[in-house]
Please model this.
Amino acid sequence: MSDKSNIFFLEDDLSFGTVLKSYLEINNYNVTWVNDGALAVETFKNGKYDLCILDVMLPNVDGFTVGKEIRMINHDIPLIYLTAKAMKEDILNGYHIGADDYITKPFDTEVLICKVQAILSRKGMKSEDSKDEYKIGNMVFSTITRIIKGDDYSKQLSPKEAALLELLCQHKNKLLTRETALKKIWGEDDYFTARSMDVFITKLRKYLKADPNIEIKNIHGSGFIMSDGNENN
Model:
């Protein structure tokens, strides 16, 4: 049985698609290439993949729409978006719908390989400080199932949401710096990943609001502090 990672690749440019597929295969990845967004979701359903590389600008169904549908099928699958447009709105849109990374054409293929390797190496990894379960106020957060449970409340988080909440739990009542969170979860600290993290913080506040004692404070220019009214970690 092959130990290669399986990549789902969506790209309508036949010349570019052929070259990139070959380059990925040379670098020891199995690649399923689809060149039509309208066929992408059905093809994805019929396979088992470790990561998706999705072109945004497609003639029938755009890559963002395909990414949303893929995430409904597999909530955990990492997504890398490719685009010929370096527009801030497009990049932020990609991160809003859960992109793991974003790369603008033309790009160095070695850079893409490095991004793929970094995402796959982080996938499913746990830090030495990780626990199976954390108590937050009257809620319990399981890092194994990625579920927050409270009184008559249950919410399963995405992998990135869970990773960020676990970091906040590990730093409870202490400052979690933006740099630490961005480097550990996103792999880099730049404008776009910082904006993406802000979106995830907003989501976590929404999930935790069932307990009014839980608060994630924004420490301007520094990071975040999560507290739940209990001074003991």
